[in-house]
Amino acid sequence: MVLVRDSKDAPPRDVVELAGVTKVHSGRVRALDGVTVGFGRGSFTAVMGPSGSGKSTLLHCAAGLDRPTSGRVVLAGQDIGALREPKLTAVRRAHVGFVFQSFNLVDALSVWDNVLLPQRLSGVRPDRRWAKELLARVGLAGREKARPGQLSGGQQQRVALARALAGRPQVVFGDEPTGALDLSTGREVLALLRRFVDEIGATMVMVTHDPAAAAWADRVVFLADGRIAGELFAPSAEQVAARMMELTR
Ligand code: ADP
Ligand code: MG
User: Fold this and answer.
1) Does 1 fall in a domain?
2) Is residue 147 domain-resident?
3) What is the tally of structural domains in the chain?
4) For residue 203, is pLDDT > 60?
5) Which parts of 102-210 fold into alpha helices (H)?
6) Could you tell me which residues come within 8 angstroms of residue 161 by beta carbon, excluding any fewer than 6 positions away?
7) How far is residue 207's CA from residue 60's CA, in Å, rounded to a whole number?
8) By CB distance 3.0 to 4.6 Å, which of 1, 148, 245, 248 could disulfide with 105?
9) Ligand 1 pocket, 69 CB below 6 A?
10) Residue 167 located in a structural domain
């Protein structure tokens, strides 16, 4: 007898899948309008588009921070539309890391405690060895006891990156993670994002308005008026800038 493998048994190609996602804010602002997009395991995607095109809303819906008005979001194999709040939070904590423009570190806690905080909040035993390795990889070995306020912006964002990866999430989302950094510091953080994708197989989805930042990604997904407006693979900064010009014309 030949066993035919059901496609259900195949591992999902994408860590995050959005299918026909529409999001209407406050009952009137259609921030996303039928967005279908997937983010592959071990890939680095930049999301770009004019201001107000729905980038942050896309990120929030993909990460389970916000719920679509209609459509489906599958995150780490789970249809999150079907999950009630405590379960959704648990899925997010277990499988998603975040890096924000404003770092969002807790100033009253040491670097070390900031990195371990998400795991402690999820009630899982922190993986100290991994946390230590991450801090070394972002160039902050020996700074475990420092407070965020004692560090430069670039160092703080590198702590935030270690924190995002400490729980070995399936995907890390960044909303303008280099938006508050100067050019060369931003480049260091982008190089780290790239290395984490290449070396540990992390999956990154990064919103940015900077074509040079997007050029570090494997793929750029463009949004305009809440809809997917094309994509570029292995993009150069020049190609990305040219496409952005077309979208904002
Ligand atoms: P981007 O990140 O690309 O600038 P956003 O996703 O933040 O775009 O916003 C898309 C649209 O939705 C904009 O018109 C914005 O004003 C609107 N919007 C975003 N969040 C809210 C909200 N909480 N309430 C009402 N309107 C919102
Ligand atoms: Mg935004």
Assistant:
1) no
2) yes
3) 1
4) yes
5) 111-122, 128-137, 153-166, 183-200
6) 99, 134, 138, 177, 189, 192, 193, 196
7) 11
8) 148
9) no
10) yes
28: Cβ below 6 Å to ligand 1?
no
Distance 54 CA to ligand 2 centre (A): 7
Contact 173, 99 (CB under 8 A): yes
CATH number at residue 64: 3.40.50.300
- pLDDT over threshold 90, residue 11: no
CA distance 16 to 41: 8
CB burial of residue 38 (10 Å; 0-12, 13-18, 19+): middle
pLDDT digits (tens, 9 = 90+) for 14-26: 999 999 999 999 9
From ligand 2's centre to the CA of 53, what distance in Å?
A: 8
- pTM value surpassing 0.85: yes
Closest CA to 47 of 179, 172, 221: 221
Phi, psi of 183 (to 5 degrees): -55, -50
Task: Note the ligand closest to the C-alpha atom of 66.
Answer: 1
Q: What is the domain range of residue 115? A: 7-248
Q: Is residue 23 lining ligand 1, measured as CB closer than 6 Å?
A: no
Give the atom of ligand 1 at the shortest distance from the alpha carbon of 54: 6
Instruction: Report yes or no on 28 lying in a domain.
Output: yes
